[in-house]
Amino acid sequence: MKKIGVFLIAVLWSTACLAEVISVPQNKTGFFITSDPTQTLYWQGVSAKALIVFIPGGDGNLGLKPTDTDRKYSFFQTLKSLTNPAMTSGQYDVVLIDFPVPLAPTARGTEDHITRIQSVIDFYHAKTGLPIWLMGHSNGGLSLTNFIQFLQKNQKSDAIAGVIASGIRSESYFKAPIEFPMLFIHHASDACSATPGSQSHATFEQVKEFTKGEIQYTLIKGGESEARDPCRSGYHMYFNAGTEPALVIDEFIKKSFK
Q1: CB burial of residue 100 (10 Å; 0-12, 13-18, 19+)
Q2: Structural domain boundaries enclosing 127
Q3: C-alpha to C-alpha distance for 185 and 248, rounded to whole angstroms
Q4: Core-most of 57, 111, 179, 233, by most CB within 10 Å?
Q5: Into how many domains does the chain fold?
């Protein structure tokens, strides 16, 4: 009976799940802000209680096309599983941000970059009414730190419900005050020289000293290496780790549900 129930849930999810690319306009203009919209891939769950906005690492450019409904690489499938009640609680919508031009790490603090993140958050909060969790991976950790400082400076920290810092670069850092929950995840075998696990744990310990929100650090242990750049593949990208990272995220965010 249990297997039949899971199958029925999977069928329900496959028919109810909406996947589409949505173009999000900039909500601010300025000399240093380009007018190009931000492409986003929106995976809608069945009965979501929160929405996760994902900031990718690398150069931040996913190359989304208007007809795209999926990303086949296992890391993206792990994120997508958060919308699927047959694989996780399925209580989430997930949004992938695709920045219009390749980004150097130093570009992740520019006014244009920060405006894009804010525009996506505002758009999807208005669209869904769901609390927004912001997730940054690898270079996306630099986006997280710069965006959070922007929120702090402008007294807008309530724009996000929580943060997931995933495999973040060693330069990523966070300042007080922080009152929202933060989850740090990192692969135990991450071989990327720019994202040592020891540094992400040290950053977690620093935040732990001043945060007023729930905070957790979890090592991911499953997955496989790949014969490619270790900063763009394998353990760093939770390659073939299945739902292990998703379940950690799921269990942490569920603590905030009322």
Answers
A1: middle
A2: 2-254
A3: 8
A4: 57
A5: 1
- The one-letter code for the residue type at 55 is I
Structure tokens at 153: 């400076």
Q: And the tokens for 61?
A: 């450019």
Provide, rounded to the nearest whole percent, the portion of the chain with pLDDT above 70.
Answer: 93
Cα–Cα distances (Å) from 118 to 16, 55, 220, 231, 240, in that order, read 28, 12, 29, 27, 31
Tens-digit pLDDT profile for residues 178-225: 999 999 999 999 999 999 999 999 999 999 999 999 999 999 999 999
The answer to whether residues 43 and 19 touch, using CB atoms and an 8 Å cutoff, is: yes
Q: Residues 26, 35: contact at Cβ < 8 Å?
A: yes
Claim: this prediction has a pTM higher than 0.90: yes
Decide if 21 contacts 68 (C-beta within 8 A).
yes
Question: For residue 3, what pLDDT is reported?
Answer: 44
Residue 113 carries which side chain, given as an amino acid letter?
Answer: H
Token couple for 239? 């390659």
| Domain harbouring 12, CATH code | 3.40.50.1820
3-state DSSP assignment of residue 167: coil
Let me know the angle formed at the C-alpha of 147 by 141 and 150, rounded to the nearest 5 degrees.
150
